[in-house]
What does this fold into?
Amino acid sequence: MRTGRPLIAAAFAVAVTGLAATPAGASQGGLEVFPATAAPGSTVTVDTTACGAHGMASGDAGAIGAGTFTLAPEEQAADAAGRFTVPASAQPGTYEIVARCSDGTRVTGDLIVSLAQPGAAGAQMPRGHVETGVGGALGPDPVQTAAGVAALAVAAAGGTWLLHRRARGDGI
It folds into this structure.
């Protein structure tokens, strides 16, 4: 029984339905974040044209711990802008910043927090290993690493033996 094509068709139908269900206001304008990459303690400016020429918006940088801020219309411009400061306690990563216009339109933008500004004097590269849960050859626990290598070797040997028996015609 072949189920590949019906599953692909079903996944495509779900994707198309999801795109059609996106509210029209969510894709308007977008939220521009300046600078796109900032260090803790930096001031970040956001602006959007989604609120109209004289629109106001309420910004939310709670994901990074900066709380709420106001976006107000800029003079002689068709956008609303606001500012917030990246907290000193912010950890490196990508954070979603949200603004909701007074008419209910919601726009988002991403802010990348780094240890230091790219190209800044005294910028340091991260050091140490990453806790991904996957492990590694130079991981912190050599016993677990050895056990993983042994398990892979046993699996490879068993697979090779089964393939060899099948090739000879002995069956499995």
